[in-house]
Amino acid sequence: MRTIFSLTFTSIIVLSLAGCRQGQLSTQNLLSVDFSEGTVLRYKLVSSRDIEVNLDSTGSSTKGGKSKAQKMSEKLEMVIAYKAVELDPYGLSTIEGRCESARVTRTSVVRKASERDGAESLAGQSFRFRITPTGRIKDYTDLKALVRRCGDKAFASNTGRQGRIKNPDMITDFSAFQWHFWDSIASIEDAAAGVEPGQSWKATQFIALPMPIPAARETTYTLDRVEETDSGRKAVIVSSYKLSDSRVKNWPRPYKGSFNMRGMFGFLRKFKLHSLEGAGEQIFNIDTGTLESEEQHYKVHIEAGFMMPLGDTVPTVSVDQNISIKLLSQ
């Protein structure tokens, strides 16, 4: 039973669905994010990336050409459970999320074991937000406070002459998950009019990177098709990504004050995104109003500079990113 629609929006949906059942009179599909009282939606979220850092992409540092790239990887695996705390049939509902587990694995060119990843402090933490029937989050207060608390955990316990040192962390991966979780529905311009196969719409989203810069991508969603299944009608929504010149509002910066970064990115500066390209696919259950799964893959190419110029050398960073979302239970 759908419980978070306004009265008008509910009436439109009921009439439209009735029309579709009577001879498939319309190809429009009304997409909305639904929560039911007493139901827990549990998701496994995985964000992983392979990173290559080339300290001299011009080839001037070696006789044989480009310098050897230094490779590293990192992966965040989380399980988050969502439940409705307060359902408002006329507008905003309050949802509580609880991070049941958070684990980061990392390989690096730095052999010394780093301290615990700040993102792992999300495990056991709860947060609340308010959401519209179209999946647009309206209150980020609790989420921003949680991200900032995790950011405090990202710093080395011992400080020396270099001041505060930030360890590698994947906190922004959690933020990107949560901020844009329902964007495929929330970014539809006229949700009440429905969406038909072949129709596209856009969203601007920030992306997680191994360095803390507020980078954004433009995502184009397209309703590819609707499949009839025993568990309901499934919308297959494909997406494509490219670099955006816009900045996402309310980018949740996890860290306070000034600091230096540990490891490879500690002596690189002036990061500039050169390109971003990729694609993804999402399965959304229209009848239950539930995101069931999503896969994303994209590559980011970044130019950088050293703390002090070293001739004509131009460091570059390549990030090969994979993201997956899977509904575990309902």
Q: Secondary-structure blueprint of this entry?
A:
Elements: H1 7-21, E1 40-54, E2 70-86, E3 93-107, E4 126-131, E5 137-139, H2 141-152, E6 165-166, H3 171-179, H4 183-186, E7 200-206, E8 216-229, E9 232-243, E10 260-261, E11 268-285, E12 290-306, E13 316-329
3D architecture notes:
The protein is mainly beta and 330 residues long. 12% of the residues lie in helices and 43% in strands. Strands 5-4-3-2-1-13-12-11-9-8-7 form an eleven-stranded antiparallel beta sheet. The protein has a two-stranded parallel ribbon with strand order 6-10. It starts with 6 loop residues before the first helix and ends with a strand.
Structural class: mainly beta
| Percentage of β-strand residues | 35-45%
Mean pLDDT: 85
* DSSP summary: helix tally: 4
Are there runs of 5+ residues with pLDDT below 50, and where? Answer: 1-25
Largest sheet: 11 strands, antiparallel
Summarize the structure.
The protein has 330 residues and is mainly β. 12% of the residues lie in helices and 43% in strands.
How would you describe this structure in keywords?
disordered N terminus; two-stranded parallel ribbon; 11-stranded antiparallel β-sheet; 12% helix; 330 residues; mainly beta; 4 helices; single chain
